[in-house]
Automatic annotation (TrEMBL):
Keyword Zinc carried by entry: no
GO molecular function per UniProt: 3-hydroxyisobutyryl-CoA hydrolase activity
NCBIfam families: PRK05617.1
Protein name (record): 3-hydroxyisobutyryl-CoA hydrolase
GO biological process: L-valine catabolic process
CDD domains reported for this sequence: crotonase-like (cd06558)
Keywords on record: Hydrolase
Domain Enoyl-CoA hydratase/isomerase: 23-356
Length: 371
C-alpha cells in the first residue's frame, strides 16, 4: 500500500485513500454514522478524484467503506440529514454549499474519464447512490440494501435520482422514487441499478486483483468483471406487471386509487407505504422523475438543485416539509410527521410547479458549468 502525492483532506479521517498497484482506493470511514456524507467528506472525495483524474500513475478508482464491529454494514447511508435539519433552522449557508458540491461530485463521478468501481456492500441509500450510480462497475453483495427513501423525510430522490431512476425499465423508477422501497442485489441488477454480484467475503480477492498491476484501464475492468458471480434472483420480478400498471397512472392520486382497487398483499402494502410519505413531495417527485426522462444528467442535476433550494426556501425553517420529515424520523424520532398538505387530494398543481421554478437565472446557476 502506498500513498499518491499528498492531497489535503478536511474530514478528520472520514475519507481515506491509498494507491494499490495502479488503482486508487477510496475508503469511506465514518462507520458510526453508516458513512453518511458530510460537507467535508464531499470535499475530500472531490479533491481525491480530481487529483487522480490527472495522475498518470492511477488507472482506475475503487470505492468501498470500512467496517466497524457493532455497526450495520453500509457503503453509504446518504447525506447527513441531522446537519440538514440544524442548518435549515439556523440559516446556515453551508446547507447551500452541501448540495451544490454534492451534485457537482455526482456529475464528476458520472463523467470520470477513468474506470470508477463501487463496492456497494450493505446499505446504499440517497447520497450513497449518488456516489455509486455513476460508476463504470457497480458491484452489489448479498448484504446490499438499496433505496432512494427521500419522500419519507419530505424530500425527493436527488443526487441525480431523477436521471437514474427514470432510466429503470417501465415504471419501476416511479415506484422506487415514491415508495422508497428497499431492494437487494437481484432487483438492483435486473432494474439497471447495479452491474454485477459478488459475495461480501470476496472483497479480499478483489483487492488482491486490484493491487496486481494492469496493462490498461480496460484491463482493470476486465479482471474485476471476471470475478463476478451469478446474481440472486430478483425478489420483486413477480410484481413488475403490477408496478408498470399502477405507476403508469397520470398522478399520485390516480396511482393510489389504482392500488386501492388491487386487493393483493403487495398492492395494499405499497399503498400503506405511500400513505406515510409526504403528499406534497410525492407529487413533486413524480413530476421530477417524468421530467428527467428526457433530460441530460447535467440538466437533471440543475433541476434538482432548484428543487432542493425550494424545499428549504419556499417554506423556511420548521415550516419546510423536509425539516419536518427529518424532525420526525431522526431528531424527535416520534415517526409522526405533520405533513402539509396532509393528503394527496389537497395538493394543487401550483404547489408542485413552484418547486420547479429556478431561483437563479441560468447564467448564475450554481451548477451552470456542468457539461
Amino acid at each position: 500500500m502506498k500513498e499518491t502525492s499528498t492531497i489535503t483532506l478536511h474530514s478528520g479521517g472520514h475519507v481515506l485513500y491509498h494507491l494499490a498497484g495502479d488503482v486508487g482506493v477510496i475508503t469511506l470511514n465514518r462507520a458510526q454514522a453508516l458513512h453518511a456524507l458530510s460537507l467535508a467528506m464531499i470535499r475530500d472525495l472531490t479533491a481525491i478524484l480530481r487529483a487522480w483524474r490527472d495522475d498518470p500513475a492511477v488507472k482506475a478508482v475503487f470505492v468501498r467503506s470500512a467496517l466497524q464491529e457493532g455497526k450495520s454494514v453500509a457503503f453509504c447511508a446518504g447525506g447527513d440529514i441531522r446537519f440538514f435539519h440544524q442548518a435549515a433552522l439556523a440559516g446556515n449557508p453551508q446547507l447551500d454549499d452541501f448540495f451544490t458540491e454534492e451534485y457537482a461530485l455526482n456529475h464528476l463521478i458520472h463523467t470520470y474519464p477513468k474506470p470508477y468501481i463501487a463496492w456497494m456492500d450493505g446499505i446504499v441509500m440517497g447520497g450513497g447512490m449518488g456516489i455509486s450510480q455513476g460508476a463504470r462497475l457497480r458491484i452489489v453483495t448479498e448484504r446490499t440494501k438499496m433505496a432512494m427513501p427521500e419522500t419519507n423525510i419530505g424530500l425527493f430522490p436527488d443526487v441525480g435520482g431523477g436521471w437514474f431512476l427514470s432510466r429503470c425499465p417501465g415504471h419501476v423508477g416511479e415506484y422506487l422514487a415514491l415508495t422508497g422501497q428497499v431492494i437487494g442485489a437481484g432487483d438492483a441488477i435486473a432494474w439497471g441499478l447495479a452491474d454485477g454480484y459478488a459475495p461480501s467475503d470476496a472483497l479480499g480477492s478483489f483487492e488482491a486483483a486490484i493491487a496486481a498491476g494492469h496493462a490498461s484501464d480496460a484491463d482493470v475492468l476486465r479482471d474485476l468483471r471476471g470475478r463476478l458471480q451469478s446474481a440472486p434472483a430478483p425478489v420483486l420480478a413477480a410484481q413488475r406487471a403490477a408496478i408498470d400498471r399502477h405507476f403508469a397512472a397520470p398522478d399520485v392520486a390516480a396511482i393510489m386509487a389504482s392500488l386501492q382497487l388491487d386487493d393483493s398483499a403487495w398492492a395494499q402494502e405499497t399503498l400503506a407505504a405511500l400513505r406515510k410519505r409526504s403528499p406534497l413531495m410525492m407529487c413533486v417527485t413524480l413530476e421530477q422523475v417524468r421530467r428527467a426522462r428526457s433530460m441530460s444528467l447535467a440538466d437533471d442535476l440543475r433541476m434538482e438543485r432548484d428543487l432542493v433550494r425550494n424545499c428549504f426556501a419556499l417554506r423556511p425553517g420548521a415550516a419546510s416539509e423536509t425539516v419536518e420529515g427529518i424532525r420526525a424520523l431522526a431528531v424527535d424520532k416520534d415517526h409522526q410527521p405533520r405533513w402539509n398538505p396532509a393528503s394527496v387530494e389537497a395538493v394543487t398543481p401550483e404547489m408542485v410547479q413552484q418547486f420547479f421554478r429556478s431561483p437563479w437565472p441560468r447564467h448564475a446557476h450554481p451548477l451552470r458549468d456542468l457539461a
